[in-house]
Specification:
about 260 residues; Rossmann fold; binds adenosine-5'-diphosphate; 7 helices; binds magnesium ion; about 30% helix; globular; alpha/beta
Length: about 260
């Protein structure tokens, strides 16, 4: 990162949140999955159990990597965690609220208020400037953009793009575009950030910069859940949840 790179104040070492024990502020976890199932019925004899009864608690301030072979259920789980999809059975508590039975409107409201997304392909809107892209989640929530402009400028500074506010995505490098997406993911001060292969489209140096940024957000207290197939990326997380056949095969925490 350049000299103007974002600085996120790390938490004091002694406040590090362990993944193995309940966090101090929310003993039930930011995320709690209970016997979560997702079944796709493709035909009478063709039923896919994409998630086959997952139990998982993720505590505030964690940095969790979800890994596993293709078809093991990672995307299905991330879609449900992100309130983009609903489970077929079981429960999902997000910030203590049961979101597993919500209708589409309620679910999209939760999604807009409580979850920040970072996608592999950035998903910026090409016609909008950097600052406008950061504001997009606020537009969905009908917030006053003038009043929130200062906050969005602050976020652009945080990701090292304070001098690129009026650029459009095509005028930015891939790493810069992903940093816009990181800023956008923070604008609603979400309970957690979900990242799906966030460095998958970046070269290794730029990817490492974006990963540094995500690590710093976590050091400042943000809960991060990241899907990756890359061991080096997963090594930055404090906990690795390994999926297999729709279930958690291994769950390793370390500090
Ligand atoms: P991963 O992200 O780990 O590669 P997925 O969550 O995408 O795995 O898929 C898990 C399983 O569910 C796979 O067997 C996949 O074929 C199946 N699956 C995923 N989405 C659908 C769908 N919309 N309809 C039917 N089967 C699906
Ligand atoms: Mg997938």
């Amino acid at each position: 990162m350049s000299a103007s790179s974002p600085i996120v104040q790390p938490k004091p070492a002694n406040s590090a949140v362990s993944n193995a024990a309940p966090g101090p502020r929310d003993s039930n976890g930011v995320i709690r999955l209970e016997a979560l199932e997702k079944t796709y019925v493709l035909g009478e004899e063709n039923i896919v159990r994409a998630l086959a009864g997952v139990n998982l608690t993720i505590y505030e301030g964690s940095f969790v990597a979800i890994m596993g072979p293709s078809g093991s259920g990672k995307s299905t789980m991330l879609n449900i965690l992100g309130c983009l999809d609903r489970p077929t059975a079981g429960r999902y508590f997000l910030g203590g609220e049961d979101v597993s039975r919500m209708d589409d409107d309620a679910l999209s409201d939760v999604r807009g208020r409580r979850i920040g997304f970072i996608f592999q392909s950035y998903n910026l809107i090409p016609q909008l400037t950097v600052i406008e892209n950061i504001q997009v989640p606020l537009i969905y929530r009908g917030q006053d953009l003038k009043a929130s402009r200062d906050k969005c400028v602050e976020l652009a500074n945080l990701v090292g793009l304070g001098n690129r506010l009026d650029h459009r995505p095509t005028q930015l490098s891939g790493g810069q575009q992903q940093r816009v997406a990181v800023a956008r993911s923070l604008v609603n001060d979400p309970l957690m950030i979900l990242a799906d292969e966030p460095t998958g489209n970046l070269d290794s140096r730029t990817g490492a910069e974006v990963l540094d940024l995500i690590s710093r957000l976590n050091a400042a207290g943000k809960t991060i859940v990241l899907v990756t197939h890359d061991d080096k990326i997963a090594a930055r997380a404090h906990r690795i949840v390994q999926m297999k056949d729709g279930l958690i095969d291994q769950d390793i925490s370390r500090r």
